[in-house]
Amino acid sequence: AQSVAQPEDQVNVAEGNPLTVKCTYSVSGNPYLFWYVQYPNRGLQFLLKYITGDNLVKGSYGFEAEFNKSQTSFHLKKPSALVSDSALYFCAVRSPSGTYKYIFGTGTRLKVLA
Amino acid sequence: GAVVSQHPSWVICKSGTSVKIECRSLDFQATTMFWYRQFPKQSLMLMATSNEGSKATYEQGVEKDKFLINHASLTLSTLTVTSAHPEDSSFYICSARVLAGGIVGDNEQFFGPGTRLTVL
User: Which residues does chain B have with pLDDT short of 50?
Assistant: First the structure.
């Protein structure tokens, strides 16, 4: 069965510091991996995805993520955090074939402190 | 481009009544739409997959007679919560998959802003 784990409920980081939000996955075959961000009472906004190719994926708003097949991880990173980055972040996975159904992690709340 | 809207954005209803939530893809066609439910401080749980012109596919544990889904056109899917009860109170989010597996700005699935349902 496919699954996604986000081990941290909350991550606090000072503004200007680098941030990392962790995600590990379990899926048969080659996964399609995604990161989304959610602001209060809003839907999800797409940040980036990995399908194939370069393990370092660059996305929206200066975010990037590194795919590590051996560790089955897809951590989200940003070199310099902004207060406005404070939000709820979701990692998601789907099988490369079939129904396009996403399995989401439990979410990590990022708090960037001024 | 690729905007998904939901209506209403919030609704309060009495226990026992039915509530309809609309999900529209505004500037693209979507053969498939998904309905999720999100509890406070929790992840999104997929409820069902809605395909245009056919019956929805429900996830295990989701009552299809309680959560009626209709996908009448390539731009509209509706979720009706029938005989709502307080435990149905939640944040409901839909997403729409771009027609024929297309990509818009490197994204393949677009999410609506959500509908907060409160059942008294």
Answer: none
**In terms of Cα–Cα distance, which of B53, B48, B24 is closest to A99?**
B48
> CA B103 → CA B45, B60, B109, B110, distances in Å?
24, 29, 8, 10
Nearest-Cα distance to chain B for A29, in Å, is 19
- Give whole-number Cα distances, B69 to A15, A64, B60, B63, in Å: 44, 36, 15, 11
Q: pLDDT at position A98, please?
A: 67
Distance from CA of A38 to the nearest CA of B (A): 9
Could you say which residues from 88 to 107 on chain A have a Cβ atom under 8 Å away from some Cβ of chain B?
A: 90, 99-107
Determine the pLDDT at residue B102. Answer: 55
- Any CB–CB contact under 8 A between A41 and chain B? yes
CA-based nearest residue in chain B for residue A32: B108
SS3 B101: helix
Reported as a single tens digit per residue, the pLDDT across A44-92 is 899 999 988 889 999 999 999 999 999 999 999 999 999 999 999 999 9
Comparing CA positions, the residue from B102, B46, B38, B45 lying closest to residue B74 is B102
Nearest to A74 by CA among A56, A100, A47: A56
* B7 and chain A in contact, CB less than 8 A: no
Tokens standing for A51? Answer: 């399908």
